[in-house]
Amino acid sequence: MWLFLGMTFSLGILIPGKLCSDLQYDGDQVLHIVPETFQQVQHLQHLCSTLMLDLWKPQLLEDIRAGEDLHIRVPAPLVQEVKDSLDQHMISYKVLINDVQELVDESVLKERSQRQVPEGYNYTEYHPMEEIYEWMTQIEKNSELVTQHYLGNTVENRTIYYLQISQPSNKPKKIIWMDCGIHAREWIAPAFCQWFVKEILQNYESDATIRRFLQNLDLYVLPVINVDGYIYSWEAERLWRKNRAPYMNGTCYGTDLNRNFNSSWGSVGVSFNCTSEVFCGSGPESEPETRAVVQLIEQKKSDILCYLTVHSYGQYILTPYGSTTTPPSNNEELMQVAQKAAAALMGKYGTSYKVGSTSLILYSNSGSSRDWAHMIGIPFSYTFELRDNGTYGFVLPPDQIQPTCEETMLAVTTIIDYVDQKYFPGGAVMLTSGSLSLCLSVVFTWIAS
Ligand code: ARG
Ligand code: ZN
User: Fold this and answer.
1) Which one of 84, 241, 279, 284 is at 20 to 30 Å from 198 when CA atoms are compared?
2) Is Manganese a UniProt keyword of this protein (predicted)?
3) Does ligand 1 come within 6 angstroms of the Cβ of 311?
4) What are 400's strand-pairing partners?
């Protein structure tokens, strides 16, 4: 489509001179362990806490369990010590990532030097924030359906924008919300939000499903919530997760925005220590990024049918709640729709997703946006954990962006289609051939009777 092919970007100016060079992961390894006994679990918890190892899965020491996957990043100087200790305790392990820095470099530096010839926006690579800002501007300029809106400001006073995709209509419509990039290092998430917008705009005329739901639904897409964190993950620490709020006179940084919402805030799966990856902030909605989302969603909540929030990794479609194992009232329907979405996703490349409530199939956590959205009355609320299963973890190579986005697109449109059919059962204003024949047969039955 001309709109995208013709969109040129002066990438040369935007490439920062220094990428991810402040913190190196040279020789760091990610180990995969499945502890077999409680003693092993205890030893691993002890090891991880005394050496302050970076837990990739699960997020919290107390969530390490026998029989369940454990992924930890071990800094190079500690690799031998950790392996010796594992051997001593007869804990078997596999090296998932042999050199984290190598992977980081591959997904940023090499690839970005090859992209000097701009033939439009390249959706199959990761983009730094300046390019995403520019992309939003261009998308709005080039499509009649898209408008860019101000959502709020970050801790470091950057602007957060979302895109609204709306087809002109004179009847009231409902809203589908999707946000990406609440966790900085999960780069595949913003890549998906951008892919999603592109696909909708490219296909809404030719694809009957998209055409149909756009008559009833407006799509609100927030490509990057955690703008400060995302930039920090590009410029300083590739594996940064939280926002960049300073605490204790700047001796520690960052709140986990997905622990900061007002849904059983601070009750489970969080830390009150600002050095933790799951620090929940000084109070519910303490962070400007959280408040920005809350303000808009609160204002529109009676019209929002579906709240999707996109993360990585692990390959899950997660339903509420994370903070309690008590299922939501519409649990059965939430599960069925998610299963349908996972099946559609699998149909593309065979990627298998697990479906279920967060507290039951992943870990318990409070203060997530997904729980909050459901609690304030948004009926369909899901977290997507995109690829992969831990082979590359948070450093998913760029050659997986396209397949990941393609399959995820099928899952997301399955959900949106379901929601559309449910709330707009009459369907489109225009008669489709199906509804026309149904209509005629009703008339004939009536005449005949
Ligand atoms: N994006 C998720 C989070 O930040 C990751 C959770 C599951 N996967 C994992 N590797 N821990 O909570
Ligand atoms: Zn996440």
Assistant:
1) 241
2) no
3) yes
4) none
194: Cα separation from own chain's centroid: 12
Nearest CA to ligand 1 atom 11: 57
pTM comes to: 0.90
The residues, any chain, with a CB within 8 Å of residue 30's CB and separated by 6 or more, are 56, 71, 72, 73, 74, 95, 96, 97, 100, 390, 393
Given 3.40.50.1400, 3.60.10.10, 3.40.630.10, 3.40.50.620, which CATH number is that of 126-424? 3.40.630.10
Residue 371 has what pLDDT? 98
Residue 371 tokens, joined:
């729980």
Nearest to 408 by CA among 362, 357, 347, 363: 347
* Residue 259 Cβ < 6 Å to ligand 1: no
Candidate from 53, 57, 59, 260 with most ligand 1 atoms within 8 A of CB, to mutate: 59
Q: In this structure, what token pair is assigned to residue 79?
A: 């690799």
Residue ranges in the chain modelled with pLDDT below 50: 1-18, 117, 431-436, 439-440, 442-447, 449
**Ligand 1: which atom is nearest the Cα of residue 58?**
11
Q: Domain spans of the chain?
A: 29-108, 126-424
Q: Is the distance from CB of 412 to CB of 349 less than 8 angstroms?
A: no
Atom of ligand 1 nearest to the CA of 390: 10
Q: What is the pLDDT of residue 64?
A: 97
CB 148 within 8 A of CB 137: yes
**pLDDT given for residue 21 in this prediction:** 54
Find out whether the beta carbon of 313 lies less than 6 Å from any atom of ligand 1: yes
Which residues are annotated as catalytic? Answer: 385
> 279 has which bridge partners?
271
Both tokens of 406, joined, read 């393609």
Tell me what pLDDT residue 324 has. Answer: 95
Q: Do domains 29-108 and 126-424 have the same CATH topology?
A: no
DSSP string, 171-199: S--EEEEEEE-SSTT-THHHHHHHHHHHH
Which two structure tokens, joined as six digits, stand for 286? 């303490």
pLDDT tens figures, 163-209 = 999 999 999 999 999 999 999 999 999 999 999 999 999 999 999 99
φ/ψ region of 315 (left if φ > 0, alpha if ψ in -120 to 50, else beta) reads left
pLDDT confidence of residue 8:
43
Task: From 299, 1, 41, 256, select the one nearest 149 (Cα to Cα).
Answer: 299
